[in-house]
Design a protein that fits this description.
Blueprint (H helix, E strand, L loop, with lengths): L1 E6 L3 H12 L4 E4 L16 E3 L15 H12 L5 H10 L4 H6 L4 E2 L12 E4 L2 H16 L2 E3 L6 E5 L2 E7 L2 E10 L8 H8 L13 E2 L8 H8 L4 E2 L5 E7 L20 E4 L13 H4 L3 H6 L6 E5 L15 E3 L2 H8 L3 H14 L34 E13 L2 E2 L6 E4 L2 E8 L17 H27 L1
Parallel strand pairs: 1-2, 1-9, 2-6, 9-19, 10-16
Antiparallel strand pairs: 3-5, 4-5, 7-8, 8-9, 11-17, 12-16, 13-14, 14-16, 15-16, 18-19
Helix pairs in contact: 1-5, 1-12, 2-3, 3-12, 10-11
């Protein structure tokens, strides 16, 4: 019998497996995907949000605990467990040396990644390189990995883990870490959570999945049905407005459209519906998927003019281009009269100011709703561009309630040998909203905690045998 069983194959699972092995436990990982698709959503990540009180190698200036906490508090609207959130924040300041010891390398913030040089440490080679480094290190340490082994149920005895089942295969262990992701690629569950809207549409039918097709939430649903305490709203997710031409699965970071704050966004009725300049893009980009999901047909268009070009990370696919706004409306299939009315009102509402897309500038609108509170420049310089947007789900927030030891709870009582990390518990910290890199902060912190807790539980049990 193995000491620690880790279910999942992404960042949190790998951190748990490495920590458990370093603590002296024998470890087996069960990854549902084939080897070439291993890693869950982690191959698509780019960076880790890090607290630091002074400049540190790739991080400039300082990003103290209280500022990190206030950023998280703002995007979650207070829907977060402060104790666990601060645990994640503090852990983010001390994990990088450990990550380096397992082959992860860092690089300075990319020039097109606005406002993140101070807050986020970027991975050299991206998430794919991070995942590969962790797997190399795990295998060198003797962690066993089984691919194409989706776990469909857990054998429990009064809140204690006994064994995991993958079809007819049974895997017993002294302790277990659950890190198998959310349910973002389970269309039926998304439909059930979102239901129909007032227009009779099923919004979830138009969602694209930015990450892994293997994150179907089978184990999450099984645990909740088995009496594990759940936390979070099933409709809440890290949901980004992405290029409507993106693939259904695994489009990743390159499908994001980053020009929203430099122009305006209109829906299928050619009307604006939210403040495009509310805050810096890394803090607010993740609200736009949900906003688009609430629009007719779950589609919208980001409209910019030539003044914005070169000020944001260029999309993979070129936008629709036109020499006039009227021509752009025609090419996008939007009602020209309504579109021109919307743009004329916005342009007239822009007040003079000092434009600077690197700060919260004083370029705002006046007398138009919704207002645009920063970076409001009239769209008057051809050529004009339009990018079709759809909601792109990264990961869901419904998860298992946990504590500072990463234990799974049953009726408020923590299990002494079943632990959880990553997307399966992120809802404890993220009740809603998102800020760039915090998912990796949560997965890394709780993966390491869960691995340590599981090893301690397994080795304690071994002493009593």
């Amino acid at each position: 019998m193995v000491d620690v069983l880790v279910i999942g194959g992404g960042n949190a699972a790998l951190c748990a497996a490495l920590m458990a092995r370093e603590a002296g436990a024998s470890v087996l990982m069960l990854e549902s995907a084939p080897r070439e698709w291993r890693g869950g959503n982690s191959p698509h990540v780019r960076n880790l949000r890090c607290m630091h009180d002074a400049p540190q190698d790739v991080l400039v200036d300082a990003y103290p605990e209280e500022e990190f906490w206030q950023d998280l508090l703002k995007v979650t609207g207070g829907k977060t467990d402060e104790r666990l959130a601060r645990l994640v924040i503090r852990a983010s300041s001390t994990c990088r040396d450990w990550m380096r010891s397992h082959g992860v390398r860092f690089q300075p913030s990319l020039s097109g990644a606005l406002h993140t040089a101070r807050t986020n440490a970027f991975f050299m080679g991206g998430g794919k390189a991070l995942v590969n480094a962790y797997y190399r290190s795990a295998e060198a340490l003797g962690v066993k990995v089984r691919y194409e082994t989706p776990v469909d149920r857990i054998e429990l005895q009064e809140g204690r883990f006994v064994a995991a089942h993958s079809g007819e295969r049974r895997f017993a262990a002294k302790a277990c870490v659950l890190a198998a992701g959310g349910f973002e690629s389970n269309r039926e569950w998304l439909r059930e959570a979102w239901g129909r809207n007032e227009r009779g549409e099923w919004p979830a039918d138009n969602f694209l999945i930015r990450g892994s097709r293997f994150n179907r939430g089978v184990l999450l649903k099984h645990l909740i049905d088995s009496g594990a305490d759940a936390i979070g709203d099933p409709t809440q997710a890290h949901m980004v407005a992405i290029d409507a031409r993106a693939p259904l699965y695994d489009g990743g970071i390159c499908t994001r459209i980053d020009c929203v704050s430099l122009g305006v966004v209109v829906n299928r009725e050619a009307k604006r519906f939210y403040d495009e300049g509310e805050d810096f893009w890394p803090k607010r980009y993740a609200i736009w998927g949900r906003l688009v999901a609430q629009q007719p047909g779950q589609i919208a268009w980001s409209i910019i003019d030539a003044k914005a070009v070169g000020r944001f990370m260029p999309p993979v696919f070129p936008g629709t281009q036109a020499d006039s706004l009227a021509e752009l409306a025609h090419k996008l299939g939007l009602d020209e009269a309504t579109f021109m009315h919307t743009l004329d009102r916005y342009n007239a509402a822009c007040r003079p100011g000092h434009f600077d897309h690197t700060v919260l500038d004083d370029c705002a609108t006046s007398g138009v709703a919704p207002a645009k509170t920063h970076w409001a420049l009239p769209l008057t310089t051809p050529p004009f561009f339009g990018y079709a947007l759809k909601p792109g789900v990264t990961f869901t927030y419904l998860g298992l309630k946990t504590d500072e030891h990463a234990a799974v709870h049953f009726n408020g009582v923590p299990s002494d040998n079943l632990f959880v990390a990553g997307e399966m518990m992120a809802g404890n910290v993220l009740g809603q909203g998102y800020t760039a890199g915090v998912g990796m902060s949560i997965g890394t912190a709780f993966g390491r905690i869960a691995g340590t807790s599981a090893a301690r539980a397994a080795l304690r049990e071994g002493q009593h045998v």
